[in-house]
Amino acid sequence: MNTPRQTPGEAFAKLASIIDTLMGENGCAWDRVQTRESLKPYLVEETYETLDALDSNQPEKIVDEMGDLLYQILFHSKIAEAHGEFSIVDVLDNLSEKMVRRHPHVFHTAEADTPDKVLHQWEEIKKREKGNQDKKSVLDNIPKALPGLARAQKLQKKAARNGFDWDQIEHVVGKLDEEVEEFKQALESGNIADMTGEMGDLLFVMVNIARFKKIDAEEALRATNNKFIRRFQHIEQRVAEKGATLKDTPLEEMEHYWQEAKNLQSSHSNKTP
Predict the structure, then answer these.
(1) What is the mean pLDDT of each run of 10 residues along the chain (273 residues)?
(2) Cα 140 versus chain centre, distance
(3) How many whole angstroms separate alpha carbon 92 and alpha carbon 74?
(4) What is the DSSP string of 61-79?
(5) Which of 16, 31, 159, 261 lies deepest, with the highest CB count within 10 Å?
């Protein structure tokens, strides 16, 4: 990356000015008609594209996608400003005040010298903040729009911090064995509703195991999805080299290519830099 030629404030002001122009009277016809609802899909899309960029570990790609994500924040702020609600300055000021308020061990005299103590302090401060005092449940702040695995892990973490947790990993694994048996019984019954319910229970306890061992369940599944894509694309490549198609290729042959891809991946990961 090039050495910055301007301060963060100057760079931010430049971007804010660009958005002012795009949303202004002589600006972009598309930008000017967007609403909070119309922009929601783009916010989600840009978030996942940023995650993909982080997975790639390519700085230039990360810079590009983080910029797109930041643009969405500014876009929403400009829409709010047009409605006389708030501006990007309010967003920044609110965030600054929140970070100082929630880090009294850094900016004031409180003590929190371990990550666990910091998290506990953060939760306690958050409970006392305006808008959170009337929450009836400690789970009320978990976003409903989170992906299923991520939301399950958030729910479990929040419950665990309030004393609802297993004592040992063996107890959680025992629950997994129990849920597997219940899912098998649902399979035998052939009842879709029962299978769906038991599948949910099975996934939930798997997430609990991940949480217990400090594994991010959503990230674990994303990594496995990417691994599947790499191995399946190897199968496609090997089949194409023979001038055949996937539909015409026996499953046994595709399984051979799958194991081939698996071995190649294993040998690459074991190479020393």
Answers:
(1) 78 95 94 95 93 93 97 96 95 96 94 91 85 76 88 92 89 94 96 96 96 92 93 96 94 95 75 44
(2) 19
(3) 11
(4) HHHHHHHHHHHHHHHHHHH
(5) 261
CA distances for 78 relative to 21, 34, 40, angstroms:
11, 11, 15
What is the rounded distance in angstroms from the CA atom of residue 101 to the CA atom of residue 19?
30
pLDDT for position 267: 65
Count the neighbouring beta carbons within 10 Å of the beta carbon of residue 235. 19
Tokens of 255: 């399984």
Q: Give the CA angle between residues 198, 203, 209 to the nearest 5°.
A: 130
Q: Tokens 């026996």 identify what position?
A: 250
Give the number of C-alpha atoms closer than 13 A to the C-alpha of residue 123, restricted to the C-beta side: 16
Please report the pLDDT score of residue 272 as a whole number.
41
**Dist CA 195 CA 183 (whole Å):** 6
Question: What is the C-alpha separation between 268 and 232, in angstroms, rounded?
Answer: 17
Q: Return the pLDDT at 2.
A: 58
Distance CA 256, CA 252 (A): 6
In one-letter notation, the amino acid at residue 27 is G
For residue 200, the SS3 value is helix
Q: Please state the separation of Cα 198 from the chain's center in Å.
A: 25
